[in-house]
Amino acid sequence: MRGHLILRVVSKLLIPFLLLFALYVQFHGDFGPGGGFQAGVIVAAAFVLYALIFGLQAAQKIISPALLEVAVPLGVLIYAGVGVLTWSLGGNFLDYGMLDSHDPSHGQHLGILLVEAGVLMTVSSTMLLIFYAFAGRGR
Amino acid sequence: MLIDQFPAIVVAAPLVVAALCAIIRRETACWLLALVVAFLSFVGSATMLGQIQEYGEPLSYKMGGWAPPAGIELRVDLLSGYLLVLVSLIASAVLIYGRHSVRSEIKKGLRGLYYAMYLLCMCGLLGIVITGDAFNAFVFMEISSLSMYTLIALGKDRRALAASYQYLIMGTIGATMYVIGVGLLFTITGTLNLVDMADRLGPIMDTPAAIAGMAFVVVGLSLKIALFPLHLWLPNAYAFAPSAVTAFLAATATKVSIYLLMRFIYSVFGFGFAIEQTLIPEVIMVLSLVAIFAGSFSAIFQENVKRMLAYSSVAQIGYITLGIALANATGLTGSLVHIFNHAVMKGALFMLVGGIALQIGTVRLSDMAGVGKVMPLTMFGFVLGGFSMLGVPGTVGFVSKWYLAIGALENGWWWVVALLMLSSLLVLAYMGRVIEVAFFRERPEGAAALKEAPKSMVMTAWVFILACIYLGFDTSFTVGVAEQAVDVLMGGAQ
Asked: What is the model's pTM?
């Protein structure tokens, strides 16, 4: 993609904002529509845009498929790990209130934050892996 | 108390370990982890079932500490406990069984992921049974189905991919219909908790929205069950999946959907409405009888033995749903008992066929000539399993057909009893074909020397074959629990 100057410049400008917007959606999930699923897709979209403009190899240099294959189950582990943590603190599975011994509502905040981080990781990696799989066909 | 956490542990442990397996990817380590966690689930399920039998109270678990009906409730009563024991037992056994056949059928780099998917599938199936929340059941249904599609696609035959895709499309349609139905019920009741939904649906069950919701749920689940004529995905999926996957699926997947259908018809929509005021029992009865005959007839003409057993599963599912349609305590007991019995005998038969596939390389009937002489243990087990399918007294097949027949007589449907008898002849026809080829034909000249399948495979299958006979005499577990579970189902009605 040597020639497409406008595309390259515009997408370089766009990608940081896409990632920022993803973070906004991620953290806004506590209060309104949003959360790990939507944010994960936006993160993946940023990388897909990069791969479309600068080529699959350049994208895979930044995030390799092998890394993604670990990130997918790792996100699930973060999610389930929070559940295991609340077990060890004497609560029910995913009882976030247990995470803060002083104020359960703080625990709720912390719990949902961690769980959504796990969701973000799994969803974005899965989306990107699917894209890699399709884009890499026939190579 | 640790036992209070058992409902969550039984489902969450396979999920956690599945993710771990996907990271580790080492075949042996994953297999060991999977075996440990499956066995743990089995012990947990059996403990819970024992506890419920002792105290007579269902276990209720508040997910995340949120009280039902707003929060998600995991609910273990006799019926779900019975299914939990079945699924976790089969999952553990197939893991022991499958080590060798997985090695021969699945590519080296994928074996760790195979175990991860297997655990996910198990987690989904256990989840459907244990949850007391209609939407949560959908989520677990998707978890189990998606992992199942992957497992089927791992089959050695190229056609496995097409079979898996076919199942994906049909399964997704089924799940979508289920979720549309649940959505309709949610809009009129405002709750997703099954117990709460049943309470609120009582007075408004005859409204159009409720009836539409019921229709969607029943048809969607029938697709998952593979009730005739919605069974088209099943034969190919079972025939081309890896042997261990087929044994696991045939014994558990459809059973779990049948459980959910029973739950909805009897507990949520209610006996008084769904059975007495709609055509559901009549429709299910006709379809079950057609399934029994069409499935068995198709089985007779199959050249691929796995496909033959798959068509036989369509027929056997017909027996189970027939019990739902009989709608009396005896028939329903027969249905529940047959869920367990069919899982045990079909599981065993698919395991034995998997052993043959490993040794000969194919499961075509024509390649099995004279196998009985070189693999006597395998084929003798196959004969006993065949007897059980036939319903010979002293085997599990007899017990469940007995209850179904008595249940039909209680309704005055003597002609159903006659049809049941007749259908056994068809079983004789297709099982007899395999036995004839294996025992009474000579091995072709120059055929490669054969020996028995690895011990772990034959032994696991034989444990199940022996269970077919043991449970045929000592019915205290299957019939005992099933009768109590029927009380739970029918109790919700009166």
From this structure: 0.94
